[in-house]
Amino acid sequence: MPGGEGTRCRSTAFSIRQRGFALIPGTRIFLLSQFVDRTGSGVWLTSCILYFALVDHLRLQQIGLMLAVAGLAAVLGSPLAGFLADIRFLPLRSLLVCCHLLRLVALSLVLAGQDLVVLIPAVAVTYLGDGAAKTLEMLIIANATDERASIYQAWSRSAVNAGYALGAGISAIGSAVGTGHAYRTLIGVNALSFLIAAGLVLHTPDRFGDGRVDSPSAPAASSAASAAPSPWRDRDYLLFTLMDIAMNMDDSVLKVGLPLWLLGHTAAPHALVPAFLMINTVLIVISQVGISAKMAGAHRSARAVPIYGATMFLCCAIIAACDRTLAWMASAGLLIAATLVTVAELIRSASSWNLAVALAPPEARASYIGVASMAPSIQKSIGPSFMTGVVLAFGAAGWVALGLALACLSVAQRQICLHRLNRRSF
Fold first, then answer.
1. Is the N or the C terminus of the chain less surrounded, counting Cβ atoms within 10 Å?
2. How many domains does the chain contain in total?
3. Are 316 and 254 in contact (CB under 8 A)?
4. Domain span including residue 264
């Protein structure tokens, strides 16, 4: 690329980043609310199992049952939030505040009781509110930032990952203390994060959710609500969402596949496992905005999907090649694989968000995004079992097959998305 053109591209990307963040009043407050929320979530994710086992004295089977029910509730939270947004049950910002407060109450019940009859519904409600809150955040971003939504979403992911990292650090301190009081304090920190996040959301400007996405005038809205298409009867959109479940497999590759493959099939040191998440967090924080700027626009996002597939195939092939190799070769290969799966995640997160919004009809965008938001939650529920029961069970061949499947699926999803975008029949 000629120097002048490259300079213009970098300048344009920087300009987009500035317009998408610095010049929208209230974005910093909303980003801070997400950062605080995910800090609490990071504490929860890294301490809840220890809390249930050591403080509530639950058996592993009981903990597994409780988290399985909670995972299902998280899946249901996304379409529920989209439905409530589309029928204008409350303004988007008010719905998000309600989700934070609902989680605060539910987590207070977790702290107050040790009976499984109380804990299962309380944890399920917490996860239901979490799934709904994430969908509402997507809708608020689309509502408040218009054509700059993809850039703002990138800033959002950077803030979210920084929050998760801080939360994990706080949890590590509490876990080092290791007392019952320390674990209760960690759960209390998570509950407090919901209260602070709700307060921050209330202080955002009106454009952050006092309405719905692309909301028409009142009479038109009433007419549109009755005639709005349903995502559950839209076969193309459901197919896109179904494919997106599989396209979220990078999450299970990073968090389940890589660590277990290192432990069972390589001579790489176990101390390398934390480096996988460290690489992931650092790259997302520093790279998400730049990659999202380069993929702004629905057509560009659709054309980027096969790049995700190719990156995942290369990642899986390298993981397979690390089987029974020398320790230093396995270590280097797995670190490269962790980098590649993170690059794939960066591409997928930006393209998936852009396409979920662009493929939805404006008059029912909230409901459609609610359905699309189910994909990550469903993958988190079934992905780890698929990884351990299928991919790892077949060894190196399982990894190659997974890479090939994702590569082929990415090409198919590109074609479906471009066909719908070009048709524009909604």
1. N
2. 2
3. no
4. 231-423
